[in-house]
Fold each of these.
Amino acid sequence: MTTATAPVAKSRHVERSRSRSAEILGRVWGDTSGRIAVPMLGALVLIALFAPWIVPHDPTHQNLAAAGQAPFWLGGEGGHLLGTDTLGRDVFSRLLYGLRLSLVVGVVTATGAALFGLVLGLVAGYFENGVGMVLMRLADIQFAIPFVAVGVALAAVVGPGIVKLMIILAVWGWANYARTIVNSVSQVKRMDFVTAAHTVGARTPAILFRHIAPNVLGPVVILWSTSAGVMILVESALSLLGLGVQPPDFSLGSMLSDSRTTLRLTWWATVFPGLAIMLVVVAFNLLGDAIRDALNPSARTRSDPELW
Amino acid sequence: MSEQHVARADGLVKEFRLGGGRTLRAVDGVSFEVRRGETLGLVGESGSGKTTVARMLIRLEKPTAGRIDFEGRDITALRGSALRTAVRRRMAMVFQNPSTSLNPYQRVGDVLAEPLRVHKAGDAAERRRRVLEMMEQVGLDPAFAGRYPQELSGGQRQRVGIARALMLDPSLIVADEPTASLDVSVQAQVVNLLQDLQRRRGLAYLFITHDLALVRHLSHRIAVMYLGRLVEIGPAAELFADPAHPYTAVLASMQRDTEHRILPTGDIPSPVDRPAGCGFSSRCPLATARCVEQAPPLVPVSDGRRVACHFPGELRLGGEPGHRAVPAPPPLALPVTGLPTLKKGG
């Protein structure tokens, strides 16, 4: 009897955890900002993915004869949708390709920093008088050092490269998250439900990740969504210093930096990548809002009782 | 050692370090035992140390001095997995406020499955079965397993809290004012549930409360705390009918008609620089020079009763025992601490 029911119950259990994430996704979709963010980000990701089949020109092909042409709808010659830059490269094609690297940099570094910062923030808040003190002083020190200086120094040691830069950004980013949640963590750890977890014998990792983490996740998600945009911009600043993406590779950020000196001549080569970054940032922020609300059980009216 | 009691506290002391090298002695040499299947009521005003005693007993705090035995084993200094098997598995706690004692991000079913998961009891299917079974036992619709605590009423949440405490089939439950944050009608239901579970499972309760009507109704024995010390302990009915300690008499008189109430005067001493003698001497109508100088030890006065007073039984109650239909609202706060200041102000 028991042996017969066990596999059934087990498969129900698996189904339950799948439908639980489906429930959260459903709530993101049900949220107004989520319903804007999801198609927006979806479109951006699809465009980035299928860029090789969409682009009208080779994004790295230089044609000095066609340099600095305005978009065709502003009377430019050559029929370029968003004009050409000072080296005669098609801005629209470059924008689609640049989007690929920028999206990857934004998502990967922001996510890495968020995970790293969440774990260290939980540890720092939980052991607030020991390890926590040390960690938070380290964060203070880190805040006092400009990242660019560190980036230059590290690049000198490990050499430039976009992957190395992403790792450095992700590691450096922990302090922001940790500092944001450390006080909430030390508040939550004194709440009755954490005491209750102690009285049933729960171990420290379970208390940290099962009980405290969900209660401090809201600000982490918001910070994650805003920092995805910030990371894209930081990457562009560092690429300008030669620390990040190296030509002939490029990102939206490096397109901005490359063209900013000729803003008066070819403003389209700066403005459109800038608008693209803005779209990405807005989409991430909206998504962050929607996820935070979806994770918060008190913001919902009623859950599906079939889910347990 | 006889197995008549499930837990025994012996000379428990808890000191908290304050700033400036001062210490607060929240609990000062408390000894008692909880017998199998009984309810021991622990009463006392806010700051009397009753919650600290409970937290030490269930080993959320480590005593500064003293010894705790539980199920025939010294648990005073246990840690890690020894603590987990000897205490966490066998002793449980019910909290005052069910809204803060349940993780808002955990579904009811997960809350109840957690004790089983921690102690690796059964596989997922078995745990699920036991959770649903327990929900029925405490009068919760098993369909609530997928709900979050916020979707439940206060009484339902407290039933979840009680069910969580029962999941590992403990021998002792420490209940810290489990009805204080509930509506009166719901209080009665929760109390009935606790009594019903005690009868069916032979549970022992350490029941902390300041609700005197409730504690008399629910407890087999009552322990009265004042300023970190146990001043009297004994069978519930006797203790309230014929109090031996003046402070117990004050508490018991609150159940009687207004003109028979004994209102203590003076201020509550601070546990930081506590008086050398009896903690109650500054407010006691019977206090003499001896009370101020010399602290009375807790000594037996009759069978099963112990009291810490130089003049046991001398403060007598007047009037008839009152009968209240419903548990009284917290009767201690205003008469004991509020009135003296009101008089001064007027």
Amino acid sequence: MNAPLTLKDYETDQEVRWCPGCGDYAILKTLHKFMPTLGIPKEKSVFVSGIGCSSRFPYYMNTYGFHTIHGRAPSVATGIKLANPELDVWMVTGDGDGLSIGGNHMMHVLRRNVDLQILLFNNEIYGLTKGQYSPTSKIGTRSPSTPDGSVDRPLDPCSFALGAGARFVARSIDTEMKHLTVMLGRAHAHKGASFLEILQNCPVYNDGIFEDVKNKKTAADSRLVLEHGKPMLFGKEQQKGLRMNTVKLQLEVVTIGKEGVSLDDIMVHDETNKVLAQMLASLHAPDFPEPVGVIYCAGVSGYVDDVYAQRIAVREVKGAPDMNALLRSGHTWQVD
Amino acid sequence: MSVVEQDNVEAVEAGVLEGVVVRFAGDSGDGMQLTGNNFTEATAIYGNDLATFPDFPAEIRAPAGATFGVSAFQISFGSGDVTTPGDAVDVLVAMNPAALITNVKDLVEGGVIIADADAFTDKNLARAGYKLNPLEDGSLDNYRLIAIDISKRVLDTVKPFGLSHKFGLRCKNMWTLGLTMWLFDRSRDAAIDGLKKKFAKLPDIADANVAAINAGHAFGETAELPSGVEIYKVPKANVEPGLYRNTTGSEALAYGLIAGGQLADLPIVFASYPITPASSLLHTLSSQKHFDVLTFQAEDEIAAVCAAIGASFAGSLGITSSSGPGIALKAEAISLACATELPLVIVNTQRGGPSTGLPTKTEQSDLLQALYGRHADTPLPVIASATSSDCFDVAIEGVRLATKYRTPVIILSDGYLANASEPWKIPNFDDYEPFPVVAPTEAEGFSPSNRDPDTLARIWAKPGTPGLEHRIGGIERDSVTGDISYAPENHQKMTLLRKARIDGIAKDIPLQTVDQGNTTGQLAVVGWGSTYGVIHQAVKRARLESLDVSHIHIRYMWPLPQNLGELLKGFDGVLIPEMNTGQLVSILRAEYLVDAKGFNKVSGQPFKIREIEAAIKDQLESQS
């Protein structure tokens, strides 16, 4: 038995080229620490990315890695997994790469349920191309391409993932190493496409957009930590919570002890409930706390496993492949 | 490729024909392709050499009776060496007025028309643009017309099987097939067997179709046909002994890709997106799952090529396929495969363009796209199939080059080759030389930039191999370490290395040979791709007239064979027929400074022999 792997085993000798203070550093550190805990030989892991700041990630992971082209990481990762289902494939993307130029591939990799861990670093901005607004930027975002503020409506990554049929959807925060580690573990344990949105701060082009959710002073009121089977409570004293308004069919923020609200009124999180997941995914500040944690998890068989199972079934019927027999299949005739 | 050893030179007796061209034409829902394929099979079994040309509209079921909805299947067969579907039609089967009006112009004077008189209704006549019924107004007097009430006879024939009017009429094509079988003395056995298999679960339909074939055949035997219409004898060709089958280009190409994977000892991941006329490759391969072939119908062309690249990165052979518009979408990803030096096979089944163009018609207009249609300096090997059966060997060669040189390879086929069938002497797979790929395992001294000193191929380390963990990507890589490098001298070196690797393939491919004629002389007719058969016949005819013409057919479009330039310089003139506006001609002029002349056709239809023959004569005239 080889010595267990450590954080050092996953670091590369490459100079990390993100801006100082970038949230990506924290995510990288968490991954370096997390990967050895899986007990998987590192040659079995592959990191695949598209283009953008987050997509430089594979260069810094001492596993197999492929830095591909803009938006296409889901397709490349699908090919890798199809070719070798034993590989542990991770995909790293951003809001521009994964939801703009690569939105179509993201939709299909989720719907097919290809067994990948998809880490989407959402900083609501294009970093590498110098700060243009992205498909997740809030309305009014001023950027080099929207000097008067953006006017198009943003897309919500977790809602998109659920809409595409993802069976595992979670959200975490770049600097919350403990929470992020748990989410990485859950994503990895899930068979099929695991979609993990990581709120990530870009200190250069979009600094502080998640400040309320991240800042220790404000986090308690602006962050809802989801746990399966537990009431959805938040606030410093855990006095606030989400209640299902059964007349309006929507979630609302209530305070325990006020207006006759008791703990029993608070909705209990059920991560297998898709309707609830869709409601949670669309909750955002300032009216609601930002839900983090596993929003939805309901496993079914993965695409690649099904593909191989089908092949085994066909082989049982057709037998071992024989090229000469294939060439002679159908109608043939002999000329003497 | 013709399977004839030498032309049958026996004297042609009265009533015996050297070769015949038959065209079946009807509505796109009339089953003309099926009829043609059945007739082709019977003809192959009979022992004629043959070539076919399925020509159908893009519309799946165009409105009945519309001229744009006419679907046709042409077969040329004979006792000699047949390499084209024929210039002119001897027998035209026209299932309705639209089929007649759109095809009769290709019929030779005195040719036979078999028409379903029941379909020549006022409505159908008007829709086709006839003011008067051509079956009755004498306008077809130059032909031998057999107007038969086929629909009525078919309905009478199938009545005992309880089919509805609609399903009963669908047996029309089999009735017509039966009559045509009689006309050329073909056996109905294979077609009948095929119907019984096809409709095994619907015995009534099977029986009705079989009855229709037999009724059509019996009609020929018993009816009084116009004078001059009798059973035609087309003697067997001197076919090389062996076991045969019919194949279309797409079938042979699919089998070649599977064979290539086996010879390379690599599993295949075939990722594709549906597009006419390339989809049949995906269909054929997806029913061969018991081989080491996985097929993936991607969400778009880009996803397809990217999945193939991912598969190659993971140690399988990634293959993708499309037609010109789809290849354009894949271009960025193909450049990624060039940059990362991964094997990839890309099949382009060309069609008429630009844009949607003529999806079901043929053209050779993607040669420049294949050679140059990517950003930056991204040379890659391009090879082209000459005939349907040649697609098998070309596919194997594509896999060999991709895996040996770790490069994307483009295989050019076209709509004509993909759909046209010809007899194929089935090769023995054991005769093919394997070219197994051995994945590296040695960690000592490993760098993802290591190269084979001879081929310059980059090391292809398979994820999952301990100690060989590495990262690759589209950013320029250091020529030694493989790490990201923006160094100017490194980019210069890497660009030249990638080019040298592709240029070096010229040493690994056969020298260009001359297909017919001398290696020097007055005129070389140079072709590539599916024009092989028609150029072959045109040059053959010209040579029979003692003209000093040679035929050179290029398979390796890039890199070009090392001796090609010298070879071309041995001719006073070079004529290049192409189904585009002059692409190979530009390349050869640029590469070799030869005064090559183009002869071009872009109608969506293959060349006719006489067109090329005339071009040869014009060219020789202009040289004298």
Amino acid sequence: MAKFLKITLSILMMSVIIISCKKDSPVDEDGLLITFRQECFVSNFELLGSDFVTVRAATAVIDTIAQTINVTVNPGTDLKNVYPQFSLATDCKLDPKIIGKTDLSNLTSPKIYTVVSGNRKIRKPYTLNIKF
Amino acid sequence: MRNKKIQFPVLILIVLTSLLACTKQEYTIPDPVAQLTNDCIKRTIGPSIVGLPLEFAYAMALPKLNGKLVSAQVEANYAGATGTYLEHRSFYTNTSGVDVPIVVGSPSSNADKLTKMNFTVDTSAATLRYYYVIPEEARGKSVSFTFTVNSSDGKTASYKMGPYTISKMNIVKNLAVSNGANAYISIEDMKVYNAAAAATNAGKIDLVYLYRAAPTTFTHALVSPASDAAYLPGVTLPTGVNRSTKLRKVFGLQDRNLANLQFGIYIDDIDFQQLDMVDMPNYALGLRAESGVWVETTDKKYRAYIFVNSINAAGTAVISILRYTL
């Protein structure tokens, strides 16, 4: 009986040690999983007004070679209060983060958003060009 | 040996626990009501706005052998505005969910804070609706009510409701606006003026209603008089109309009161208090039916929500306004 207990306890302890020594999955500073993916591009772009209705006059043109996003917006769009939305390749993230309404009214100095790949090793800055 | 000593009490404990856990809870029929009794619910669920009614359903009953209902009354701490009444009809809900009225008394009468009706039929149970139109003097304060019923056996039963906080908001519904005519909106007056009237109320004009078929994104618009001329194409403002009002477009916010009792959304005081109008423009283009705009007047005296009830291609629209005084 005592022998059986000793064996069981030994197995249990070994299991605990093995589990506790397993290497954690890597995460970045935002707590997001760092993966092996190298894809790094913007797949879709949307721009919403304060009423969360699109202000685009046409589909955004995304050039993944030139790393630009060209958007034509409706006349009278209030670009001080818009909500940009990016769709990115799998596991990518955006820098800077979009946390709410954004001021894109300075058309002479287009805003630059950087896409960071899933493995966090590739960074591609996209220039957001807006025109009426 | 020691293990056996422990095992037996543990076994007993488990058996007892199991027995107790399985005891069936017997349902006991409540005692029948032996005297006059009453109950009340508030049927209005939105914010309490001056000029709009608060609706209650007041139920009362006594055993048939004890007698019949004689009178019912409601006392409010502020006298109700015109339109306050206690139904002289009792309602029941039929199998189709429709409320069916049956006349049980004479129409109610109001005397200061008291609304009273007398039963004219021999009945021992009734549910009466009470509509309290919120008076101006209750704005920003609390109202409460005491519902009372008297029966022929000399008994009285009472039920207290409230207090309910009355909103600071003002409401005005279904204002017709038209391009080039009744186009000048005053938040302070909560009215729409034509150009001549706007000139005499120039300091109160906050917005101009416009309709332009082109560009297609312009259509129905609310534009502040001080807005860029590009947003006031072809408009000659009356002298002195020059206020700059902040606007924030909203879509999908159909307040039930503004939308004539459609939808289930309510705007309340707190929405105006927490509204962020920083950096908002002074124009709103491309308005559609059931869209709206948050408004902040140039003197920051008022915030408002203008709801577009309907529009039509001829350059007219119907709007409703909910206003909050800051």
Amino acid sequence: MDKNQSIKVENLVKSFGKGDNKITVIDGANLTLNKGEFVALIAPSGAGKTTLLLMLGCVLEPTSGKIEIGDEVVYDNGWKVKDDRELRRKKIGFIFQAHYLIPFLNVEENISLLPYQNGESSKVVKPRVKELLKYLGMEDKIHSMPSELSGGQNQRVAIARALANNPEIILADEPTAALDISRAVSVVKMLKKITREQNVTIIMVTHDERLLPFCDKILTIKDKKIQIEENSDEHII
Amino acid sequence: MINLAYKDISHSLSKFLITAVSVGILLGIVVIMIGVYRGMIYDAKSLINDIKADIWVVQQDTFGPFAQSSRVHEDLQNQISYQNGIKTAEAITFQTLQMENRYGDFKAMLVGYDPFGKIQVINKNKLVAGRVLQKQHYEIVVSQKTKYKLGEYIQLGRDKFKVVGITKNTVSNGGDYLMFVSLKDAEVLQFTYTNERIRSDMSRGIKGENPHLVNAIIAQVEEGYNPTQVAKGIEIATHKKVFTKAEQSKILMQKVIKMAAKQIGLFTVILIIVSIVIIALIIYTSVLEKIKEISILKLIGIPNLTISMMIIEETVVLGILAFISGNIFAHLIKGYFPKRIVLEASDSFSFFVVILISSIFASLFGIYKVLKTDPSSAIGG
């Protein structure tokens, strides 16, 4: 097992329904990504992007195949982890289309929710949250409620939340969909910076081709299989 | 660790408080219903407890004046007085009156007793003004709720009675206000008819004389005698039905107010069920409002237990706040009810336990929704 590997998928299959109604969405997909890579996932609607994302996030059980996250085999023709939520809490970060912060928690509480759930003490969590907010330029908003922040600021808090548990991978489901192009570019640049500086792999679903040049690799789903394309036109930050 | 329930409640505190107070008003009605039941029991026992008699001698094959019509001859008291173990015996009458004064109309129970007798009929601890009867005629002691004033005259039948005493918390087992007159006056009131009635009776050969009938003979037992044994002896000697005070009280509870108590009990149970359903609906609706947040919490890895605890804690806090506001509401409005409402701490505690358990039960609907929420619904549109 490569120590630099963050996620590895082998012969992944996902079908829905049975008998004549059986539909296979992903059929024998293979993928290996290294730590610190910023990867775009693009495909037409209905091609299986969300299905793939949910399987990589250990939310949806594949029909067959193998998934490794970091140095742990999480699925091999059956779940290999007892508690999929604990795995998500400790190894996976999520960023959504909208920020989806918990409205009744302030910025600090939204970010510290997962570390506290992982059993970390406030001595560890509080400095980490401050550090993340400073890193994302939001340190002055630590006690703000989500309703008091702009869309872009909320999305940055959501990114901080995804980073708070030091994940192996971050799955970002169209994180810039609700933002204008200048803010979208700003967020994508930030995500790329995170991959480099935090040594985390980010898989970002997007429909916006203007953001592709910022990514290291571009994944597409074609004929129910994953195709990987190295990005030659990478933007330099 | 972050307490999600506390954070959620704090975030929408005013909405939560309004909901709790609204449910509280409903629970307050339940508290009042329990108070009505307790008040009914209190009232039922009030008169029997006030009259310091050990045994009640009533018409044969009846359950006594509180349960059904009972007539015995007044002079039976002499026969009872000579029975072994009897300290003293006196006659007593009960008569229901529909009264009307300048404050409105009301039902009253007129109690006739011997003002010079040895058995206490009016509880002196409940006398708030004036005195007990001291004359054989034309004096009356009334319940405070009749609103008569001391020294005021009341027309009863053909005579006027002067109010010489006012009592508090004196009602019959049916909740009617008590008024006390002498036995002689009570008999006159019961058996003196209008001139037309007297003429009508005479034409039928009926003599319009006072038959000297009373409703019961009450007696006190000598020290060292067992009231039950004395009662048995009197039953054999007089061919009357004799109840001890405890038996008379039991009859009131089991026969007289049994149906009313059942009615109120059933109504209370229905109200409690309605309250639980409303709490469950409120929690279920609040879970539905938070369904997106719940799916996100589940997706990012927050365990079901943590989310379910948030629902349970919120429901329990809602139940506790509703219980407190319900009790405050009940205490504020209880004085406006025409009949006695008795709010007891033990009932409140039992009701609190019921509400606590019910709240947890009600939260199960919300928890079911949490468990059923698909975390994958957080991803995509």
